[in-house]
Amino acid sequence: MAMNRIQFRSGLSILESLKGFGTEAQCEQALEVASWSDGFHCPRCNGTAYYVIRDGIRKVFQCRACRHQTSLIAGTVFQGTKLT
Question: What does pTM read for this prediction?
Answer without folding.
Answer: 0.68
